Each structure stands twice: as structure tokens, then as C-alpha cells.
Amino acid sequence: MPTNLPPEYHEAEKQYRAATSPAEKITRLEELIGTIPKHKGTDKIRADLRRRLSKLKSAAQSKKSLGRQESAYRIDKEGAGQVVVIGPANVGKSALVAALTNATPEVADFPFTTWTPTPGMMRMENIQVQLIDTPPLNREYMEAEMLDLIRRADLILLVVDLQTDPVQQLEETVELLAEHRIVPRHLEDRYPQQRGLTFIPFLVLVNKSDDEGSDEDFEIFCELLEDDWPLLPLSATTGRNLELLKQTVFELLEVIRIYSKTPGKEPDFTAPFVMKRGGTVEDFAGKIHKDFVDSLKLARIWGDGVYDGQPVGRDHALHDGDVVELHTQ
After folding, report:
1. Close Cβ partners of 195 (under 8 Å, ≥ 6 residues apart)
2. Under CATH, which number does the domain 82-253 receive?
3. Rounded to an integer, what distance in angstroms lies between the CA atom of residue 53 and that of residue 43?
4. What is the pTM of this model?
5. Which of 208, 217, 243, 248 is nearest to 231 (CA)?
6. Which residues, given as ranges, of the chain have pLDDT below 70?
7. Helices 22-34 and 43-66: crossing angle, nearest 10°?
8. What per-residue confidence (pLDDT) applies to 110?
């Protein structure tokens, strides 16, 4: 049965998807439910959204009741991916997160100023990625919950200080993580028979590469490494290569941005749906609403490898920047 959702629904849905905090999500979802006309065609959608609202309110109430007992390391994923920033003490992790996000971790020239993880949102064009600043990795004391936070990450940014023995910093950090069965994904071939390991994509950020004068030091660092590593020289102080970092993080997360289009209207390019690379039209329909998967008749696509408005089936693979217009039965 047709749903006949009004334009106000799509605008409210955009606001809901853009919400970042639980409280804002609850408010936006209540507004979204209020835009849906009440008839048999929308019964399932309204019921699903009410269940979602109930879960959000229950989760918020549960967090409030836990109070101080709630772990600081249990951080809900937000945005296009959760990226955890790790490294030894005093390499500039907090300064880097502060330069890239809205977070305000304590930044100082002395070590161990960060005692709990601090999340912030990094904007990359029209999407946001969650960065989490973390306490320094320390062999003498390692929080089990810190290790769990690393294991849950979509990507690890390992920060080293170009001016203070970066080779040793990298090697000791990787060794410490390996002792806790956390391994960079590009080294996975070294562990063909071992089970119980967590393989995560890594990017090594060589901080304090402030200008071109430090390029020679960076080249020497690269030559001293025994393994091939994905490396990016940058500076939290001068801002060098921070924009390149954003683009690199987007590529390593292996996500794509898909834009929804209502028939007869222009697409909204301000709030894309974020999907894993390789996602299909059917996957996209499910992200909008699970009922759309069953009722999907066809889709029209504007984007990579198709002519404008080309009809495609539910198994059509989408690409970053595609515009999708869903047609249901």
C-alpha cells in the first residue's frame, strides 16, 4: 500500500539523521513521527519509529541511572565511522583531535594529560567521522576497557612524534598491541594459523612534520622502518596535511555517500546516507526504512556508470555520490 509521505517527512528525516547526541535524536525523532499522516499505508512506519523512539528513551534513562558507574570507554558510534587515536605519551594526540574536531581535550607539553577517552566529530565535506582521543598506551598499566575500545574501532590512527625517536614509538606500540592480540590489518598475512586476533586497519600519523624542512627527517624515518606502513606526515600545530588526513580517513573507512531523491524533486546534497562500499540499492532501501525493502519495485540512478535516471534493480551496486530515487509498489 502506498505510504504517500509528505515533504515535511523527508525534511524531518534529514534533521533526525543529522542529530549527533541521544537527546537531539529523541527530539528529532518525535518531530519526524509527527509529520507522518495516519492511514493504513503508514501503520508499519509509525510503529517502527515509535519502537525506535522507545529504545532511545530507554537507553537515555539507563545511562542516567548508571551515573558515575558507567564506563567512560563505552562510547556509542556516531557519524560515518569510529576512529580511535592512539600512541605513546606526548606525541600530540590531543592537539590533533582538538585541531580536527569540536572536542576539547586537555593539551599540554607534559605527558599523561589525557586520562579518559574524549570523543569529537571531524567534518569531512558533508559527513562527520567520530575521532576518539585516548590515554597514552603504557605497558605498566593498561585498561582492559581501553583495549576493548581499540578492538571496536573502524580505524586506528597511531600517532608518533617525528622529532622524538618515531621508529621506537611505532615498534613498541605495535608490540604492545600484539601482546593483547590486536594486529594491524595490513600485517594479517603474518598470522595465518592464529585465532582470536583482532585485525584493524591502521594509519600511522607522523606528527610534528611542521613544514618542508622536516621532509628529510620523514624520509629517514621511512627508510628505517622494517615493514611497509601506511604513513602520513602532518602537523597538529601548523595544520599541514590535515585536509589530506580527512580524505585518507574517508577512503580507509571504505564508505560511500548516497543521496536520496523524491520523485519530481531535486536531491538533497546536504545530508547523505553513509553506506559501506559495495552496498546495493536494496541495502540503501533498508537504510531508509525496512518496509521499503519488501515494497521496492525499482530505482532510478544518477551517478557513476549510468545515464541520468537509469532504472536499475535492487542488486545494483552503488558508488560514492550516487543519487537514488526509490519507487515502491
Report:
1. none
2. 3.40.50.300
3. 15
4. 0.77
5. 248
6. 1-4, 20, 60-70, 105-114
7. 160
8. 45
